[in-house]
């Protein structure tokens, strides 16, 4: 018998099932394959939709942040003021040279329409004489890379409106003198280091101890009843202001990784004028048994935040706790938030006005790499330089 001999119904002696069964089996396999492919396509489409939704959210966030940055960078100029270009933009031409004796006496402050251009208290200088932003103070040192500065106009406005309503311009200028920097763009006016301003505000009381009436009767008699500590960068003390007692010395937090936190907080705090003022690695010989420590503040005499590396034992507190920091301007709030997210933090609230706290409560919220909740806020109205 031939090995290929076919029997009835097309079956050979090696066949166990008829050809119809084989065809049915193939059709069933194809059906199952199509079902698996269809299921996989559904899974991929679902994942794609979720990813696209996240991408759309991220793009909206980017556009919102860009719009806010552009809005804050637009000049907020009152009547009679030159438009001020933002820090770090391209500036055509070279700064115009000015006489050194004029450099620190022609700064721009925000116009106060309610003041009727009267002389500033205790200053004897008409407001119309100090609002010129064209003096770039070219003889001053330029801002250094990474150095946080603001225009002198903003600084003096903050001093007048928030720190000392009856401030003496000459006294404030002497205190801020070590932090003065030349203009970053022609026509924008000189700048000042923000940490110098914060150091000044931390020492100054809301009012002079010498009253306005005393100043009028004895314009040259400014003997203080209470003097400020000597500024570390400028040995001459400004005239009388009382030094309020501050019961809060510093706040300490624990983190898992020294290097991560050092990079994060060095970058973030620079946006609001705080700097690394203590590093145990720089002053103490390396010892694996010692806890590595960082300290941040406006200067070495005012260390506000201590950071200790505790590894896996570090844990932030629960709901309700957060650390809030004041920023000099709304632009600083936006920069703080952007830098924090860029250095490993998590967005916990975009920059914007929180009307339930007040019409001028411009804040942002982030979570640091270890889970510590941070807030940064500027309460200065836009019209006053916020």
Overview of this structure, please?
The protein has 386 residues and is an alpha+beta fold. Among the domains are: 100-217, no CATH class; 251-384, 2,3-Dihydroxybiphenyl 1,2-Dioxygenase, domain 1, CATH 3.10.180.10. The protein is built from nine helices and eleven strands. It has helices spanning 19-73, 100-103, 152-163, 169-176, 194-203, 212-217, 258-270, 280-283, 330-342; strands spanning 149-151, 180-181, 191-193, 251-255, 275-279, 293-297, 305-309, 323-326, 346-353, 362-367, 373-378. The strands form three sheets. It has a four-stranded mixed beta sheet with strand order 4-7-6-5. A four-stranded mixed beta sheet has the order 8-11-10-9, with helices on one face. Helix 1 runs antiparallel to helix 9 and helix 7 runs antiparallel to helix 9.
User: Count of helices?
Assistant: 9
The amount of beta strand, in percent, is: 5-15%
Strand arrangement, major sheet: 4-7-6-5
Unreliable stretches covering 5 or more consecutive residues? 76-134, 205-243
Number of strands: 11
Which range best describes the helical content: under 10%, 10-25%, 25-40%, 40-55%, 55-70% or over 70%? 25-40%
Q: Order of helices and strands, N to C?
A: HHEHHEEHHEHEHEEEHEEE
Quaternary structure of the protein: single chain
Specify the biggest β-sheet. 4 strands, mixed
CATH 2nd-level architecture of the domain at 251-384: Roll
Mean pLDDT: 71
Spatial shape: elongated
Which radius of gyration do the C-alpha atoms yield? 33 Å
**And the CATH topology of the domain at 251-384?**
2,3-Dihydroxybiphenyl 1,2-Dioxygenase, domain 1
Distance between the termini: 104 Å
Overall SS class: alpha+beta
Query: Given this structure, which CATH class of the domain at 251-384 is correct?
Result: Alpha Beta
CATH homologous superfamily annotation of the domain at 251-384: 2,3-Dihydroxybiphenyl 1,2-Dioxygenase, domain 1
InterPro entries: Glyas_Bleomycin-R_OHBP_Dase (IPR029068), Glyas_Fos-R_dOase_dom (IPR004360), VOC_core (IPR037523)
Domain VOC: 247-379
Pfam family, one: Glyoxalase
GO molecular function: dioxygenase activity
């Amino acid at each position: 018998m031939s090995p290929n001999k076919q029997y009835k119904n097309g079956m050979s002696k090696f066949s166990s099932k008829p050809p119809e069964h084989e065809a049915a089996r193939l059709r069933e396999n194809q059906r199952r394959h199509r079902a698996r492919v269809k299921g996989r396509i559904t899974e991929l489409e679902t994942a794609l939709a979720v990813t696209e939704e996240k991408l759309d959210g991220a793009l909206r966030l980017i556009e919102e942040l860009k719009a806010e940055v552009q809005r804050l960078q637009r000049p907020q100029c009152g009547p009679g003021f030159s438009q001020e270009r933002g820090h770090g933009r391209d500036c055509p031409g070279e700064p115009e040279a000015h006489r050194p004796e004029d450099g620190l006496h022609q700064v721009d402050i925000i116009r106060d329409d309610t003041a009727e251009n009267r002389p500033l208290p205790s200053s004897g200088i008409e407001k119309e004489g100090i609002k010129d932003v064209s003096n770039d103070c070219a003889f001053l040192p330029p801002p250094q890379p990474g150095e946080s500065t603001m225009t002198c106009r903003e600084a003096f406005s903050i001093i007048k409106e928030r720190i000392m309503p009856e401030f003496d311009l000459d006294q404030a200028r002497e205190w801020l003198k070590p932090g003065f920097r030349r203009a970053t763009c022609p026509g924008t006016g000189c700048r000042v280091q923000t940490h110098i301003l914060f150091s000044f505000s931390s020492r100054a009381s809301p009012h002079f101890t010498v009253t306005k009436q005393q100043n009028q009767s004895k314009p040259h008699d400014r003997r203080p009843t209470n003097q400020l500590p000597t500024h570390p960068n400028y040995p001459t003390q400004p005239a009388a202001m009382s030094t309020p007692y501050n019961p809060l010395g510093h706040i300490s937090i624990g983190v898992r990784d020294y290097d991560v936190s050092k990079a994060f907080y060095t970058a973030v705090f620079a946006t609001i004028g705080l700097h690394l003022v203590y590093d145990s690695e720089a002053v103490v010989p390396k010892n694996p048994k010692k806890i590595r420590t960082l300290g941040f503040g406006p200067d070495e005499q005012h260390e506000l935040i201590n950071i200790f590396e505790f590894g896996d034992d570090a844990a932030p507190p629960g709901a309700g706790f957060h650390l809030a920091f004041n920023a000099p301007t709304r632009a600083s709030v936006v920069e703080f938030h952007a830098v924090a997210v860029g250095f490993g933090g998590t967005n916990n609230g975009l920059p914007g006005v929180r009307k339930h706290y007040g019409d001028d409560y411009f804040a942002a919220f982030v979570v640091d790499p270890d889970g510590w909740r941070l807030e940064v806020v500027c309460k200065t109205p836009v019209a006053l330089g916020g």
